[in-house]
Amino acid sequence: MKKLFALLLTAAVLQACSQNDNTTEGQETTETVAEANAYGASFEEQNVLSAGQLQQAVSGNDSIQATVAAEIVESCQSKGCWMDVKLEDGSTMKVTFRDYGFFLPVEDLSGKTAVFTGIAKHEVISVDDQRHFAEDAGKTAEEIAAITEPREELRFVADGVKLK
Q1: Which of 147, 74, 156, 152 is nearest to 110 (CA)?
Q2: Where is the signal peptide, in residue numbers (predicted)?
């Protein structure tokens, strides 16, 4: 009796393991593709601001919660821990990720569009932090040494990012 039970249990396990899901090899569902391009906390793309609209919305405020769409100019080539996005006036805004909770691919993301949600605020960036970011971006030693003064800029701490 024990042998029959063990044989039936083994057959049931083998049958369950050989079950095929409904997707075929090499074919991805829309949900899988969407998840592959999303990093950090999930969010709905509602009330999305352009970079120019964000600049207007944050002026006169210490910080604002927003969802923004912008073109990536540069990204961290070391760990994928930040990206610079293009602002309407031609400058850039550094986007970092809350508590280093997630990272983007280290491939060159310039030219891609990112939609991200989180908090925008004006900050003074120390010389050390500017040099660190320049090093991550692969700048030369001369370019890094040329950074000698703190700089105030618009920054964004993202909770989630979707690459388009």
Answers
A1: 74
A2: 1-18
